[in-house]
Amino acid sequence: MRYTMTAFTNTSQTDVWVYESSDATNFTLVRAAAYRPPEADPADTPATAATDKKGLCRDPSVFRHTDGAYYLTYTTAWDGNTIGFARSRNRIDWTFLYEYPVPLPNVAHTWAPEWFVDGRQRVHVLVNIDDGTGFRPHLMTATRSTLTLEQWAAPVPLLGLDPAAGSLGYIDTTIVWSRGLYHAFVKNESTKNVEVAVADDPVGPYSLVRTGNWAHWGGPGEGDPREGQCLIPLPDGRWRIYLDAYDLDNPHHGRYLYSDTVTTDLLGDWTTPDELPVLSGFVRHFTVFPEQLPSAQ
């Protein structure tokens, strides 16, 4: 197995760093600052703080498409209605593709886009959209395999995951298929907990089945803030989640954690979170893409 990680870091919200691992735990550097969007100005952009600068590359999500190339999608700004796309053949040399403007009214924020391939092998991007009434996870679907700008269907909200009255809604959505159901792991932006909803269809309707600090990822009691969740299957049938244990007051005090299911059940018990070796405290909101490489001859 090879696990490819794409992350932004505590030193820059304009640059993507690429890492790889053979065990999903110990990651080594493939290339530092491997990709920077064309509009980025790192010299005039704060490393971690909220900013009105555009051309950012936060929350980079990676997957490998059927054409053999790797694709990124990422958050382009703290405010606004666009997400970015880039492409690479080798995970080292990246080419900017385009910024996609979300064709919905009153969009104030478009955060943490993430690749998702459903059970029918359809390619989607999950994106968390705030129209001024709170964040809702949305699903945008590729209508052709080329993944060009014009072939994206307009994002549709995931049913059942509307923000409750007075809440901030749900962000950092990631979906995996297990035991005949789609499991949406969402960060409750009001409570700062990672919660789980399930559905029969990628668009829903979803029902929240695990809420609050249910897996103790945030520690004892009410827990501490967690976000940037990424889930991958492990070779033995269990699952792993990576979590950004962030500290907005001092990002350099943040950590990155991982936790595994005790069995193959995503809704069951999880192990006590461990810190990700070496990279904890440096990488921010990443995704990991697992792939089986051909055996050496």
- Give the CA-based shape: globular
Mean pLDDT: 96
Strand-residue fraction? over 45%
Strand order within the widest sheet? Answer: 3-2-1-20
Unreliable parts: none
Number of helices, counting only DSSP H or I runs of 4 residues or more:
0
Element order: H for helix, E for strand: EEEEEEEEEEEEEEEEEEEE
What is the helix fraction of residues, given as a range?
under 10%
Gyration radius, rounded: 18 Å
Oligomer: single chain
Roughly how many Å apart are the termini? 16 Å
Derived structural class: mainly beta
Main sheet attributes: strand count, strand direction, barrel closure: 4 strands, antiparallel
* Total DSSP E strands: 20
What can you tell me about this protein's structure?
The protein contains no helices and 20 strands. With 297 residues, it is mainly beta. Strands 3-2-1-20 form a four-stranded antiparallel sheet, with no helix packed on it. A four-stranded antiparallel sheet has the order 4-5-6-7, with no helix packed on it. A four-stranded antiparallel sheet has the order 8-9-10-11, with no helix packed on it.
